[in-house]
Amino acid sequence: MDFTLTETQSLLKDTAERLVREKYTFDERKKIVAADESYSKALWDEFASLGLLGVEIDEDCGGIGGSFADLAIVLEAFGRGLVVEPYLSTVVIGVGLINTADKGDRRKDLLTQVAAGTLTLALAHGEPKSRYSLEHVETRARKDGGDYVINGAKAVVIGGDSADKLIVSARTDGNATDRNGVTLFLVDGNAAGIHKRAYRNMDDRGAAEITFENVRVPESAVLGPVGGALPLIEAANDRGAAALCCEAAGAMKAVNEITLEYLKTRNQFGRPIGKFQVLQHRMADMAMAEEQARSMVYLAVDFANEPDAAERAQAISAAKVQISHSGQIVGRGAVQLHGGIGMTIELVVGHYMRRLTSIEKMFGDIDWHIGRFAAA
Amino acid sequence: MDLKYPERAARFADEVRAFVRKELPAEIRDKVQRRQKITPEDQRTWQRKLCDKGWACPSWPKEYGGPGFDVMERMIFDNICSEEGAPSALPFGELMISPVLFAVGSPEQKAQLLPKIRTLEYWFCQGFSEPGSGSDLASLRTRAVQDGDDWVINGQKMWTSGAHNANWIFMLVRTNTEVKQQEGISMFVFPMSTPGITVRPIVTMDGEHHTNETFFDNVRVPKTALIGEVNKGWTYAKLLLGHERTSIARIGQSKRELRRLKALASEINITGAPLMDHTPFRDRVAAVEIELLALEITALRAIAKGGSPGVEANLLKVKGSEIQQKLTELFMDAAGPYGLPFDPDRGLHDGNEPIGFDEAASLGPNYLMTRVVTIYGGSNEIQRNIVSKTLGL
Predict the structure, then answer these.
(1) Domains of chain B
(2) Nearest residue of chain B to residue A328 (CA atoms)
(3) Which of A291, B108, B333, B369 could form a disulfide with B206 if both were Cys (CB 3.0 to 4.6 A apart)?
(4) Would an 8 Å CB–CB cutoff place A348 in contact with chain B?
(5) Does A44 map to a domain?
(6) Using the beta-carbon criterion (under 8 Å), do A344 and B204 form an inter-chain contact?
(7) Is the dihedral of CA B373, B360, A36, A97 positive or negative?
(8) A8 pLDDT band (50/70/90 cuts)?
(9) Which domain holds residue A149?
(10) Which residues of B touch A336 (CB under 8 A)?
(11) Domain CATH code at residue A369
């Protein structure tokens, strides 16, 4: 566990924080969210030119060959900015899967495109009945000559509304909840037979319900081992949860700063409301919750790419549970301490609560992670 | 488990239930149960049914056109109506300004206002909070100055919920700046059509327009708009807020939500078994159910005591609001990933199939909006201050 920043990390921190401060003001964000497209392609290009899309991508693919700890720096800044661009789905989940599961020319080609900002990705895994169970896959891929034909439905696919390519999990063997028999396929986002119902999530990120109706892909579309993709999916889910922990830390720090400032400047009964002990104690609880969350971010970062699945699972679940509880205390507390004004859509405070609530519900909720931690 | 009410009360409950099931249009009930927006027309439709039956304004005595329910009947009536999905009564007219009118309204004010509050012809909103006066309500600065037989009002009110649907307002204004804050406030009622009033929408974080800020620019009202005596408005406001706090406990609504939560959690599967059988979730639901039972009995005791609501009102507000929030949190837990897709219209204007399951669309916005219940009507921090004062601290 390293609490100091490397030179690369300091540079990344400066870059990402300046980007958020200058280009992702709350007013700019409102414009991005109000647009038809679920994210700003102009900003995505800027992420690319600043090297933010290639943090974990090898240098020979145009990346900077960094670690998850480096990525964490960017994620925290994006949490502060409430960034809605498909960074999580493309750079955390997509790149993670390709880095571990793919090889050869395709790997190089895909990663090069991601780093350059010309390819976005989304993992289409969760299903209407799967909830958070990662092994629950009803979508089927049937072998047909040299092709596979995919049928099924995927639920709440983060970034799935806009992704150029989907990484789709489907059963090539076994029953709906078997650990074996799940295969990943790389499919064009607009392939024939794909139907998307796009929407925005509570945190304004784009997502979609996606159905696959006889979607035909060549055998070469397979990513990773046939029938053995579940461990890859579990690793991706853990990386996603770890990334959200980093985002949450940035969001909590930002909203705590805003709330503290409000307590010092809002006057009632002839003095700043921060002079009232009951509000002081709530703010103190929020500050402590933020610190506890930040501690667990270090744990999550250390274990995000841990190959030992059992170790990784326990660490990531511990972090996600703490971050989710902290997020509740901070998000709900910030709204309560602001009073009526905290309820309005014109104030950023409610948007932090929306982001923190969404983070709690993605890649496993508190019950799921606490159960997994306890069972380990 | 249901509380043991006397047999007479049980018969009354059956009567109310049968009435609501027969008379409440299914379309309105569905909207209420799905937590969707109730239009003014929906509200009026239900109010007409209640008026025809003689049950409108259930808290009112017979002499003002109410049903004259006793305490038990009133509690049962509110609970059953909410449980069966009837729209909640709008608090501003029936529950807030009316008790003040009963107490200090002039005979003319009573005769003019009460019958039309009862039919919802007069739809009230409340002008209390201001940009600089939230919890510290007594610091309000909107001014009324006497000019001949009239008063002229200038200032701004915040959180005038439903002002965009209302045609009347009751408000607190400063009529004396020379005395202690609380002693220079008066209460007025007048039509929203009075020249000089501007209502601007405030959108809340659920993406919906519930509330407003309202501006008063040389709004001229007659002296008959004054309620009771000049500079006694603070006393009337306390009476009024006591009634608001009792009504916003929303016990019937929470009972309805609890029932729906259990039904939903029985349909959702988690690793092959109903979520409702999943121990951590089940136990959290049970904990809220127990709190709600206690609150129902506390409310019964408060009503049975009679008189105007005292510290019980603060207790009911605090616990009732906390229970409402816990229920929305449990709904979000039940929804899992399907709590994420966000639709400010709560599925109302969307002709498509629901995303996930039928009522999923309302759960996120409802969770967010319900954060307000520990803020409005006097924040829970203020309520606890009042409770501790009554304990002598």
Answers:
(1) 7-89 (no CATH), 124-231 (2.40.110.10), 248-390 (1.20.140.10)
(2) B329
(3) B369
(4) no
(5) yes
(6) yes
(7) positive
(8) very high
(9) 123-227
(10) 371, 374-375, 379
(11) 1.20.140.10
Beta strand pairing call for A121-124 and A165-171: parallel
* Interface predicted TM-score (ipTM): 0.97
Share of chain A above pLDDT 70, in %: 100
Statement to judge: residues A235 and A223 lie in one domain: no
* Closest CA–CA distance from residue A50 to any residue of chain B (Å): 31
Domain boundary among A64, A98, A119: A119
Compute the distance between CA of residue B345 and CA of residue B335 in angstroms, rounded to an integer: 18
**CB contacts, 8 Å: B339 with chain A:** 202, 357, 361
Q: Based on the domain organization, do A21 and A128 belong to the same domain? A: no
Same domain, residue pair A84 and A72: yes
User: pLDDT tier at B248 (50, 70, 90 boundaries)?
Assistant: confident
Grouping H, G, I as helix, E, B as strand and the rest as coil, residue B112 is helix
Q: For residues A73 and A130, state if they share a domain.
A: no
Q: How many domains does chain A have?
A: 3
Query: Taking 80 as the threshold, does the pLDDT of residue B282 lie above it?
Result: yes
pLDDT category of residue B310 using cuts at 50, 70 and 90: confident
**What gap in Å lies between CA A275 and CA A113, rounded to an integer?**
54
- Count of pairs with CB atoms under 8 A, one residue in A, one in B: 128
Rounded to the nearest angstrom, the minimum Cα separation between B379 and chain A is 8
Same domain, A39 and A136: no
**A104-135: string of b/e by CB count within 10 Å (b at 16+)?**
eeebbebbbbbbbbebbbbbbbbbbebbbbbb
Instruction: Give the bridge partners for A150, in sequence order.
Output: A141, A215
Mean of the per-residue pLDDT values for chain A?
97
Measured between beta carbons, the chain B residues lying within 8 angstroms of A342 are 371, 375
Catalytic entry in B213, B244, B289, B312: B244
Tell me if A357 is assigned to some domain: yes
Smallest CA–CA separation between B85 and chain A, in Å? 26
Active site residue B322: no
Averaged pLDDT, B170-184: 97
